[in-house]
Every structure is written in C-alpha cells, then in structure tokens.
Design brief:
With 513 residues, this protein is of the alpha+beta class. The protein contains 18 helices and 23 strands. It has 3 domains: 268 residues, 2-Layer Sandwich (BirA Bifunctional Protein, domain 2); 110 residues, Herpes Virus-1, CATH 3.30.40; 99 residues, Anticodon-binding domain (Rossmann fold), CATH 3.40.50.
Length: 513
C-alpha cells in the first residue's frame, strides 16, 4: 500500500512540475477537489477527447454528436429521478468530525483484502517461477478463495442494503467489519444518511422571479430531451447513437484521489437507441467495442477488467464497469449500461410530449430502449498519465523519468533541438518548426546541453526529439531520437513529416481495434 501511495504522490507532483494539472486557484490555497488543466494537460485532454470522438462518431455512420447546455429546465431532473434519488450514503465520524461516503469506506476495506490476494499471488509466483499458473492458483488456493468469498459477501450485502435503502444495515456492516476512520483510527460513527449531490443555482433578474435550477450532474439527459430533434433533423434510423462530451457537476461528499473524483468534471457519453428486445445483444457488443478502444492505446490488457453490477439502478436491466488499475487499485473508468426505455418514457410523462420512433419496417411507433457508454474524461486522463509515468534504470547506472504516453495522445509530438545556439543551427531548427507545426504540435528547445534536453522531453512525454547538428548544414539530415527506445537515426529533413505521422496518426492506433 505504501508503495502505491508513493507512486501516486509521484504522479501528482509530476503533473504539476511538467504543466499538466494545477490545483485550482492555488494562490488562495485552492478549492477542494477542483483542478485546472495546465498547458500540457489541456493538450493531452483534448487529444483523449478527439481520440474518443473519432472512434465513436467519425467512424460510425449511425452515431452523431450534440453539445447540450449545462443549464436545463428543472423538471428534467424531476423526470430523470435526480431530485428524489441522486444520493450517496453519508456517514460522519464523531471524533474526527470528518465526513465519508459509507459505500466507499466499505469498498476501501475490500480493496485492502484485494491487496492481500495480490501479495499471495506475488509470493506464489516467486516460489513456482515459470511453472506458476495464476488462474489455477486463484481458484484453488484456500486462503485466496477465502479472501475472495469475503469480498463477494461484503459487496453483495452492501449492494442489497443500498438497493433496499436499508441504511441501518450499511451502518451495521461498517460496525461489524470494525472499519475505522482512515485519519484517526476512531470507530465512533454516526448513523448513515442520504445526501443529494446536485449543485443548486438560480436563473432570473430578481430574487422574486428567479427560478431554481441545477448544474447538470450528468450529460446524458441533454441527449434524451433532444432525441426526437436529432432523429428527425438527421433522418436517423434505429439503431443510432447520440454522443456528447461536456462538463458535469456533483457536490461529492468526499472528493479525493486527485482528479479521479472531482466536483467539476468532464464526461464522454454516447446513448445508443435500439429496438426493444435487442438491447441485450447491443449491450454485449458495446462492452466489447469499448474495451477494444481502451486496448488500442496499448496500456496493458492486464490493467483492465469488467465488473458486473450487483446493484442495478432501478431503470437498468444490465450494467458493467470497465475498471482500470490506477495507482490506488482497480477502479471504475467507464460504465456500459442497458437503461431500457426509462429515460424517454419519463420525459414523455413529465413533458406531455411524445418521444417515440415510428418504425417503417414494423409499421408502428415505440419508445426506443437505450444502451449507454459513459466514460469520465478526467479519469481517462489519470489512467493514461499514471500508467505512462515510469522510472527506468539505464545501462550506465543512472535512471531516467519518462512519461511513455501513447504517441497519438502526447501533447507535444516532437521537440526540435539545435545542437548549439550558433553557427546557423537555430535558424535551420526554426525552419523545421515552421514547417512541421502545420501538422503537429511541436516545440523548439535550445536551453541546456542536448542530453539534459532529451531528459526533459522524456519526462514531458514527447515521442520524438529532432537534433540539428553541423552535419545538417552539409547533408540536410537530422538525428531523430525515439522517446521509448532512445534509439537515434539519421533521416532526411523532408522525411520528418511522414515518420512522425506514422507514429502519431489516429488511423494507426484505431486500426488496432
């Protein structure tokens, strides 16, 4: 656990030092769980968003995008169930006066048991070497099987209690497991109560006439209320999807773990409208498609897993998370949900307007069912960033810190370095920058010895360093250095564009799906 904490601290400090993420309004001591994306962070975030959008919208003829407003008519949130049911179970510690989510305390307890399983696996792998069969060990080792059963029983009981709104049993579970306040070790807890997560605000010129509004807690409802507008104006035929990226806001009880859980965050969602009765096969198909998208980035198949929900939302008939191995363990990265016709039916009921699709083949109208894919952009940013940050031991007994971002997502694609700041080398380097910047985000770097510049660009995640030296003036060739392998080759200046394009092009990466 200590190791995980150290790694996570490195991620947070590296994000600040290299201009990826800053604490919001830091000069005023910041605001809890609100962050600003810095000069490199905003590029990485945009590249992740574009990579999702191209895979989701551009590559699918039957999926289109919208950008709905953050403010919506307040009845929207009554219809969607957010006003009555968008709650988290809250518990206070009487001694430390700290507030926690009761379900997160229980999940963290289970994560500690997971760590014990990981330790048993590591010990056995060391003991058996090449003969080690992980799957067999996990299913037959008595201690590991016991740990897994314990986790399953705890989560099943919690899921059932939350579903039945039996908050007294959630409290009883915390007491039985002897879960302590992580900060003080105190086990002196209040009862569990529900806490609504929506931020309220007002719209209107005067206090008397102002209307109560909410900042949207999710982007999906903007898609549902526009379902018919998009379908008719785009002459869309079922099955079809509507995608959207944008900000959402939740007044989290405990916002923590850096940008993993924030109060202002960005979602990338797609609602796929299907014929009732076909939702199960579409749900399975989207699970598979979305996992392939993640795997196309090459961040390690072992770092992903599906988690099927024990506790289904009242409107869902199937739900699963794609979990990713963050520095603090496996956590939800993306959700795939079969939402039935709940959303459109609710908006029909509350608005009094029909939200139905006329199916010419069936010669009848119906309310479509929906399969949703929903991923947190900030979580995806953290997954990519934390997975990419490594410290490597080099042959000469030194170490280098390198941010091995997938090249397609890297904020800066190439750094152009004149070997020295004289003899006409900066001029040639500047000319290369002027040429390449039409196609790629590139930077010019002339400060410090070239070795130090390489290290700086490695830590910044830049896939290529292009060095202009004295020979360049004679042969029009430069040295291109690859970040991950540190290999250097001499290439013609005129070939640079194609070499970089091959490595960073979206097509190259998405074709892996």
């Amino acid at each position: 656990m200590a190791n995980q904490d150290d790694q996570f601290k490195k991620v947070i400090s590296h994000a600040k030092e290299y201009g990826y993420v800053f604490q919001s309004s830091e000069i005023y001591d910041g605001l809890s769980a609100v962050y600003d994306y810095a000069q490199n962070g905003v590029e990485l975030k945009k590249n992740i968003r574009d990579y999702w959008w191209k895979a989701m919208v551009q590559m699918h003829e039957n999926i289109v995008g919208i950008d709905a407003a953050i403010f919506m008519h307040p009845t929207t949130w009554k219809a969607s169930g957010h006003i009555d049911a968008f709650n988290d179970p809250l518990i206070d510690n009487k001694d430390s006066k700290k507030r926690y989510r009761a379900d997160v305390l229980i999940e963290d307890y289970c994560a500690k048991i997971e760590n014990k399983i990981d330790k048993e696996v590591a010990k056995a792998a060391k003991r058996f070497g090449d003969d080690f069969n992980k799957e067999e060990f996990l299913s037959t080792n008595g201690r590991v099987v016991g740990y897994k059963e314990k986790i399953d029983n705890i989560l099943a009981r919690m899921g059932k209690s939350l579903e039945n709104e039996d908050l007294a049993d959630v409290k009883a579970l915390i007491d039985e497991l002897e879960i302590a306040d992580p900060l003080t070790g105190s086990k002196n807890w209040t009862e569990v109560k529900q806490f609504n997560l929506m931020f309220g605000t007002k719209i209107g010129a005067s206090a008397d006439t102002a209307m109560d509004l909410y900042l949207r807690p999710e982007t999906a409802q903007g898609i549902f209320v526009n379902f018919l507008n998009v379908q008719k104006s785009g002459r869309m035929k079922i099955p079809f999807g509507i995608a959207q990226t944008g900000k959402a806001f939740r007044n989290e009880i405990v916002a923590r773990q850096f940008i993993f859980r924030m109060r202002e965050f960005e979602q990338m969602e797609m609602q796929f409208f299907v014929k009732p009765g076909t939702q199960k096969e579409w749900y399975e198909q989207w699970k598979e498609t979305r996992l392939k998208w993640h795997l196309s980035l090459g961040m390690g198949e072992e770092n992903y897993r599906f988690h099927d929900h024990d506790k289904l939302a009242h409107y869902a008939d199937a739900a699963a998370d794609i979990e990713f191995k963050f520095p603090f363990g496996f956590k939800e990265l993306e959700g795939i949900h079969s939402r039935t016709d709940f959303d459109l039916s609710q908006h029909e009921k509350f608005s009094g307007k029909k939200l139905q699709y006329f199916d010419h083949e069936e010669n009848k109208s119906y309310v479509p069912y929906v399969v949703e894919t929903s991923i947190g952009l900030d979580r995806m940013f953290l997954a990519v960033f934390s997975n990419s940050l490594v410290e490597e031991e080099l042959e000469n007994n030194t170490t280098r810190t390198v941010l091995k971002l997938p090249a397609v997502l890297a904020p800066v694609k190439a750094a152009i370095l004149p070997l020295v700041k004289k003899d006409g080398l900066p001029e040639v380097a500047r000319k290369i920058v002027e040429d390449l910047k039409w196609d790629f985000n590139v930077v010019y770097d002339e400060k410090d010895a070239v070795g130090r510049r390489y290290r700086r660009q490695d830590a910044n995640g830049t896939p290529f360093c292009i060095t202009v030296d004295h020979d360049t003036l004679e042969d029009n060739m430069v040295t291109i250095r690859h970040r991950d392998t540190m290999e250097q080759t001499r290439v013609k200046i005129e070939d640079l564009r194609n070499i970089i394009k091959q490595e960073v092009d979206v097509r190259t990466w998405l074709m892996k799906m």
